[in-house]
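Translate structure to sequence.
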């Protein structure tokens, strides 16, 4: 397997770790296997130069950008790893990290202390606010990574892991955690989405709680956190999410 060629193609955006299929996304097994092969082939080295004192796989160095790339990588501790794609018009505020195999499409904002995990797919005009954690999924190779589709807004401190799909135009409020172990409650349609279900297009998700309905849980008034779809995007919510062009 020519893992080096595949990493080059990932950086060019000509191949991806996952692609749309039907109503969801499908992992590109060949790509994920190539990434794992690269880790196996690499030897730990001290990079030296501006990275003196940092030790990692010698074949997976941080990417270097030029103004011609059209990416705004603000100084202050951010890093994009080998094999990750960052499109023109993307802004990264320090410190932020984009891991191997990730894909960040045009016009997206990666704010301070945000993490885009391995193979995660971020669409066009997505805003990842400060402290957002987008989990990485390398293994098993057939598992689709976290996907955040076009025009989504992910609020500060939110955590999205375990291959969750967030569909277009969704809004995730600050502090929401989305994983396959926690069901999502749709208060608009009065239904519980299955564990690991995609967040619907245009959904506005806020942090909430639900009671623990055991005798002891009821007696002690315990509750656990859960995401709640409180509304679907309308003109008012769209207006509140407009980003100032001057910031770009």
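Result:
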């Amino acid at each position: 397997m020519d893992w080096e060629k595949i990493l080059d193609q990932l950086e060019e955006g000509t191949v991806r770790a996952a692609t749309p299929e039907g109503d969801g996304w499908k992992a590109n097994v060949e790509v994920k296997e190539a990434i794992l092969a690269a880790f196996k082939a690499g030897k730990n080295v001290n990079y030296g130069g501006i990275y003196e004192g940092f030790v990692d796989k010698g074949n997976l160095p941080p990417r270097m950008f030029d103004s011609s790339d059209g990416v705004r990588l603000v100084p202050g501790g951010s890093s994009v790893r080998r094999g990750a794609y960052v499109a023109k018009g993307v802004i990264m505020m320090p410190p932020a990290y984009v891991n191997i195999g990730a894909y960040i499409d045009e016009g997206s904002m990666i704010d301070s202390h945000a993490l885009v995990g391995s193979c995660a797919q971020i669409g066009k005009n997505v805003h990842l606010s400060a402290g957002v954690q987008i989990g990485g999924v390398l293994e098993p190779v057939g598992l689709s990574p976290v996907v955040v589709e076009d025009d989504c807004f992910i609020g500060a401190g939110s955590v999205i892991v375990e291959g969750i799909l967030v569909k277009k135009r969704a809004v995730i409020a600050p502090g929401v955690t989305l994983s396959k172990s926690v069901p999502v409650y749709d208060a608009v349609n009065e239904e519980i989405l299955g564990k690991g279900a995609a967040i619907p297009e245009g959904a506005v998700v806020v942090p909430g709680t639900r009671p623990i309905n055991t005798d002891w849980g009821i007696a002690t008034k315990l509750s656990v956190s859960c995401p709640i779809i409180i509304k679907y995007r309308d003109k008012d919510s769209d207006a509140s999410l407009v980003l100032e062009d001057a910031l770009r």
